Amino acid sequence: MASPSVRRLLHTTALLLSSISLSWAANVTYDFEIGWVTANPDGKADRPVIGINGQWPVPVMEVNKGDRVIVNVLNSLGNQSTSLHFHGLFMNGSTHMDGPSQVSQCAIAAGSRFTYDFVVDQPGTYWYHSHNKGQYPDGLRGPFIVHDPENPYKDSFDEEIVISVSDWYHDEMPGLIQFFMSKENPGGAEPVPESALFNDTQNLTVALQPGKTYFVRMVNIGAFAGQHVWFEGHNMTIVEVDGVYTHPAEASLIYLSAAQRCSFLLTAKNDTTANFPFVASMDTTLFDSYPADLNYNVTGWLVYDKALPLPDPALVDEFDIFDDMTLQPYDNEPLFGEPDQTVTLSVIMDNLDDGGNYAFFDNITYTAPKVPTLYTVLSSGDLATNPQVYGEYTHPFVLEKDQIVEIVVNNIDPGRHPFHLHGHNFQALWRSEEEAGLFADSNVTSSAFPAIPMRRDTLVLYPDGNIVLRFKADNPGVWLFHCHIEWHVISGLAATFVEAPLELQASLGGKIPQDHLDTCAALAVPTAGNAAGNTVDLLDLEGEPVPPKPLPAGFTARGIVALTFSIVSGLLGVAVIIWYGLAGDQGSPKAVAAAAALAGKGEEEHPHAARRIAEAGLEPPYEEGVRGEEIRPVSGGRA
Ligand SMILES: *[C@@H]1O[C@H](CO)[C@@H](O)[C@H](O)[C@H]1NC(C)=O
Ligand SMILES: *[C@@H]1O[C@H](CO)[C@@H](O)[C@H](O)[C@H]1NC(C)=O
Ligand SMILES: *[C@@H]1O[C@H](CO)[C@@H](O)[C@H](O)[C@H]1NC(C)=O
Ligand SMILES: *[C@@H]1O[C@H](CO)[C@@H](O)[C@H](O)[C@H]1NC(C)=O
Ligand SMILES: *[C@@H]1O[C@H](CO)[C@@H](O)[C@H](O)[C@H]1NC(C)=O
Ligand SMILES: *[C@@H]1O[C@H](CO)[C@@H](O)[C@H](O)[C@H]1NC(C)=O
Ligand SMILES: *[C@@H]1O[C@H](CO)[C@@H](O)[C@H](O)[C@H]1NC(C)=O
Ligand SMILES: *[C@@H]1O[C@H](CO)[C@@H](O)[C@H](O)[C@H]1NC(C)=O
Ligand SMILES: *[C@@H]1O[C@H](CO)[C@@H](O)[C@H](O)[C@H]1NC(C)=O
Ligand SMILES: *[C@@H]1O[C@H](CO)[C@@H](O)[C@H](O)[C@H]1NC(C)=O
Ligand SMILES: [Cu+2]
């Protein structure tokens, strides 16, 4: 691998040369040995984290637009598999480098090597993270910056600054996930983070020089919490969201959901008479309950003079959030025409008969297939256009090349969900207010859609509201559409777009690199056949991984939950509380969630799905006719 200094040299050369010849591009190589290290970014708890080359925070990846990026991964974790996803990069022509395990590759087995190799043809602010088993909140996530010699704002700023923001947990994901999905947590209360971080630390100081203007790239690399971000005494002039340049828009406070990015120009003051705090405040409306002593804010400082004090931030009474729907892309791409295909999905949270709380798009909770979906595309011939081969529980939608696709998402849940599409950014045509109900009932017609819609790759859907998105299927590949709250990825809030499968076969057939196949072999994951691994009869899905059964007939989810509550709180509640108390664990998310469950809070804040589903006129997932005999307990495990 090029040493950092060699890489920098390449960058400088690239920067110089690209102003002369646009076709010049470098090969940028990263060697990443992924392994455990210890870290304590909030100063409250040492914990094992997943680092790269013995270091954590993991490095900021930096390339120029047009570069070819080669990432040689060695998984030295010993006890976990892994994968890397490069969030927001289109992977045009290289869907097999997109990263989600069981979707476009097998996980990288412990001890295995795996090379990601792709060309980056987009400018802007991205990030990379593990896309395997809810792993990235354990540390394997960092910014990915694509510098752009043609940045339309290049003459408007002096320097670039990268700042990540995130939530932070003290416990490791495998244990948190086990609790989150268990019957001890029937309300589906997500573990609450212990801290918020700027740049994987707290009390970050950013030295500013008077009069200069900075291009600040802010990335939410968190697992769960959206963040309100503001800089005292300074406004932000937004110029990029999720890799899409925008016309300038002034904001005093922005909301960044998990996975969203925002770049803005920040102009320093002309005098150096004071330093200014900047704050990220986690969106506590996402938390079902949290400990009274949780500090959900993190503070940093714009430092004009090191000798001057770092003042405490002033309290903000109300978050006056900048509405990203008002942004316009710099390229003025007009609204796509009427869709060739419309996919309508409703977000529902409900219990299955293992007592766990699952997330559904309509009646399907995503369950990873036996064969990674891309490999099914490549091994199913003409049947690749038949969604059946991908299995019911990958929730597949087959798109034809160059179709205009519209996605309508209705939120039948009182939570906020940031939706992300792989392989594309989308035009955001419509976002309702909270409590607006179903899009179909809202009487909104296409005349309400902006002529030049905002584009990004992750958009927040409001509680009980709806959104409408459009994109053009001009990127053959297998692309997930999912909520970017990692807990909801785990509980199944994902669908699969199989885009132009025949074109994909023509371009990728026979070209999956050997190391991709080797890691499948190491994990005994088949690389051909339908979602059930059947290579003979592709329409026979016998044996495909399925979620737990629906709740028994006659039992409503509410009944089960109420039963669980009454039994647990009546008979075991006191014991459980004592047990948590003895474990000295009162402040942990487990204890908090358990306490909330015992207090019935979980249920209160998750009004029962069945009623909402009925109101919405949708089929409940546990409806009688849906409970086929062929449904069996989950075998393959979920991604
Ligand atoms: C990048 O690597 C490829 C394959 O190794 C090689 O063909 C190409 O010339 C390299 N490009 C540059 C700019 O070094
Ligand atoms: C940041 O500063 C606060 C206040 O001084 C302190 O309590 C906290 O421990 C600091 N955080 C870190 C990670 O040092
Ligand atoms: C894997 O090993 C790390 C480092 O020793 C440890 O912290 C972690 O709990 C282990 N995880 C699993 C799932 O065994
Ligand atoms: C944030 O951290 C990254 C690397 O970890 C560094 O490149 C960047 O300069 C830091 N930002 C600030 C404002 O210190
Ligand atoms: C920030 O913008 C708001 C209106 O958009 C304006 O009222 C305020 O004065 C600006 N603040 C600064 C520091 O420029
Ligand atoms: C700083 O001074 C320059 C030149 O007088 C002026 O154009 C600019 O608006 C000032 N900037 C701020 C933030 O006050
Ligand atoms: C976090 O910041 C908000 C906004 O200023 C404030 O209302 C709240 O009291 C702060 N919370 C903590 C725990 O500091
Ligand atoms: C939509 O139109 C129908 C029929 O005109 C009306 O009953 C309904 O209230 C309208 N819904 C909304 C949300 O405006
Ligand atoms: C992918 O590449 C094709 C061919 O260059 C281009 O037409 C298409 O717009 C690209 N799509 C995306 C999402 O980058
Ligand atoms: C979901 O609903 C559709 C349409 O009613 C039905 O065809 C399908 O079998 C259902 N799937 C599951 C898993 O319940
Ligand atoms: Cu979600």
Would you spell out the secondary-structure blueprint of this structure?
Layout: H1 4-18, E1 27-39, E2 47-52, E3 61-64, E4 68-75, E5 85-87, E6 113-119, E7 124-129, E8 141-147, E9 159-168, H2 173-180, E10 195-198, E11 204-207, E12 213-220, E13 227-231, E14 236-241, E15 244-251, E16 254-256, E17 261-267, E18 276-282, E19 297-303, E20 341-351, E21 357-361, H3 373-379, E22 396-399, E23 404-411, E24 417-421, E25 426-431, E26 454-456, E27 458-461, E28 466-472, E29 477-483, H4 486-490, E30 494-499, H5 501-508, H6 514-522, H7 557-582, H8 589-598, H9 601-605, H10 609-616
Parallel strand pairs: 1-4, 3-8, 9-12, 11-19, 20-23, 22-30
Antiparallel strand pairs: 1-2, 4-6, 5-7, 7-8, 9-10, 12-17, 13-16, 13-18, 14-15, 14-17, 18-19, 20-21, 23-28, 24-27, 24-29, 25-26, 25-28, 29-30
Helix pairs in contact: 7-8
Bound molecules: 2-acetamido-2-deoxy-beta-D-glucopyranose (NAG) (10 copies) and copper (II) ion (CU).
